Amino acid sequence: MRIFNTLTNKLETFKPIHKDTVNMYVCGPTVYNYIHIGNARPVIFFDVVRRYFEHMNYTVNFVSNFTDVDDKVITKALEDEMSEQEIANKFIDAFYRDAQRVGSSTKYLAPRVTEYMSSIISYIERLIDKGYAYQVEGDVYFRVTKITDYGVLSGRKVDELKAGTRIESNDKKESPLDFTLWKKTDVGITWPSPWGEGRPGWHTECVAMINDIFGGKIDIHGGGSEIKFPHHENELAQNKALEGADIANIWMHNGQLNIDDKKMSKSEGRVILVKDLDYDYMGFRLFTLSTHYRSPINYTDETLTNYVKEWEKIRRVYKQSFYTLDLKDALEVKAEQSPMLKGIELKFMDAMDSDFNTANAITELQNLVKHTNQILRKKDTEAELKSAIELFDTFFKILGLNPGVTKLSASDKAIYMAWHDARKNKDFDKADRLREQLQSRGIL
RNA sequence: GGUCCCGUAGCCAAGUGGCUAAGGCAAUGGACUGCAACUCCGUGAUCACCGGUUCGAAUCCGGUCGGGACCUCCA
User: Fold this and answer.
1) What is the DSSP string of A99-130?
2) Angle A238-A242-A243 (CA atoms, 0-180°, nearest 5)?
3) What is the ipTM of this complex?
4) Which nucleotide's C1' atom has the smallest distance to the CA of A183?
5) Is the CB of residue A12 inside 7 Å of nucleic acid strand B?
6) A7 Cβ partners below 8 Å, 6+ apart?
7) Of the candidates A333, A408, A396, which has an alpha carbon nearest to the alpha carbon of residue A369?
8) How far is the CA of A373 from the C1' of B28 (A)?
9) d(CA A241, CA A144)
10) Cis peptide leading into A29, omega within 30 of 0?
11) Which of the residues A38, A75, A376, A403 could staple to A257 if both were Cys, CB 3.0 to 4.6 A apart?
């Protein structure tokens, strides 16, 4: 299987560091607000990455953090007259609800910065010991100029960065590119450190936690493309300083989700929160996976509506297939996979093997829909239908789509049979009444 | 200002040197049908523009126009 490595800008054949295991870390949210639909994109995509590796029988150690120490958290806590911890807990709960809404698993290790404070402090101490960081009046900064190839991940050159006049000037820093590892402050929650009361900068938490949890280099480090610089660049720099090597074998970055072709912006009123999305969430998930993960997605109501309809179509044929077998008590029939279905399966897996090309994988899901609809029009196809259902189940599991179809109850079946008989006897008034019942039960 | 990405049918979107440029939505013709819904079959593209490299370009190179992102602890 091949994955695009943002560090080398090339497709690379995936080779795990430890046999049959994938260690991956995805930068998680700062928990000061509800997540918006752009935040949901990596939550969905990297969930699919994990699912596909698991389908390939890897053991996946998936870790995604919560940044619960941050200026924004502190500001929000002051505004709402709550503690930072209360704010964090509130929005972590909300995050889990939203992740579940869009079909992503929440059963993974989710370390919080506040739980790893001693690791972060000792990590900074080691950077100082090695001469890669320096203390000024209770602040600690990273000495970027000591990293010779700084900018390698984001494709920037130190000279160009220095030339940028927009970098905030700070007299305490040796170089404007140096970034904060520890910030002296008495605003909001603080921790004691060898440099005094304060709190850590953003860029250390991920490397410190990765080292603490995984004990070294991981296979995949992921996140949104907008945090490639400076956040991931700085993580890489810190790890090079301490270990002389990269923190991850492969860096993966997903493209952004825009609205009206522009980045979401709270100040311009261009934000849609996941919890406020007034559409079917599976349709939304399908929408986000229908574009290759490295490309930007443009959100419009029209586009999302199309994918919601598409999901209904997928779900409908699955439901019909499932109920067709259920009504015949044939759900446990032995599946017989046709060459056609085998071909669809192979192409689906090929697409996933090619840098998680979910767009092409979904095309195969659509082929399966069409083919299954053709099977449904024929008679005596239980074994073939069963095979189609199994393939749907496989695809759904990998993509994290859930049709929510369960076995019919005895009364469901009775109504269905009565409807069938009424139509057969041309008692259409009765048939229409029964049809309404079936529709209200979600069977038709 | 600097760096980078993108521009494929009305819409969404794959394809990044080689058969007639996938797939979906919409539209339209047909089939199925008690009605409706669903579903199936058919119908659509000089790949933004100009020039170059090549036997061959949507794909590589240069330019033009248009859109966007990053350089601000913004997912």
Assistant:
1) HHHTT----SB--BGGGGHHHHHHHHHHHHHT
2) 110
3) 0.93
4) B73
5) no
6) A152, A153, A246, A250, A251
7) A396
8) 22
9) 10
10) no
11) A38
Q: Which nucleotide is nearest to A200 (CA to C1')?
A: B73
- A252: its two tokens: 């993966």
The pLDDT, as a whole number, for residue A170 is 62
Q: Does residue A163 approach strand B to less than 7 Å at its CB?
A: yes
Which distant-in-sequence residues (6+ apart) come within 8 Å of A3 by Cβ? A11, A12, A14, A220, A250, A252, A355, A356
Q: What 3-state class would DSSP assign to A63?
A: strand
| CA-based R_g, chain A, Å | 26
Lookup: nucleotide whose C1' is closest to A157 CA:
B3
Q: Which amino acid is at A403?
A: P
Q: How confident is the model at residue A167 (pLDDT cuts 50, 70, 90)?
A: very low
Cβ-based contacts (< 7 Å) between A 103-162 and strand B: 154-156, 160-161
Cβ atoms of A369 and A314 closer than 8 Å: yes
Whether A433 sits with its Cβ under 7 A from any strand B atom: the answer reads no
A296 contact to strand B (CB, 7 A limit): yes
Determine the protein residue whose CA lies at the shortest distance from the C1' of B41. Answer: A374
Say how far apart CA A23 and CA A335 lie, in whole Å.
Answer: 35
Residues A36-46, mean pLDDT to the nearest whole number = 95
Q: How far is the CA of A309 from the C1' of B71 (A)?
A: 40
What is the predicted pLDDT for the residue at A263? 85
Q: Closest residue by Cα to the C1' atom of nucleotide B13?
A: A291
Helix (H, G, I), strand (E, B) or coil at A81: coil
- The pLDDT tens digits of the residues spanning A284-301 come to 999 999 999 999 999 999
In the block, tokens 């085998």 appear at: A342
CATH class of A300-399: mainly alpha
| Of A338, A339, A340, A358, the residue nearest A349 (C-alpha) | A358
Superfamily per CATH, domain A2-277: HUPs (3.40.50.620)
Let me know how long chain A is: 444
Strand partners, A419: none
DSSP label at A407? Answer: P
What secondary structure letter does DSSP report for A37? T
What does the pLDDT read at residue A306?
93
Inter-residue contact A74 to A86 (CB < 8 Å): no
Q: Which of A217, A288, A154, A239 is nearest to A22 (CA)?
A: A217
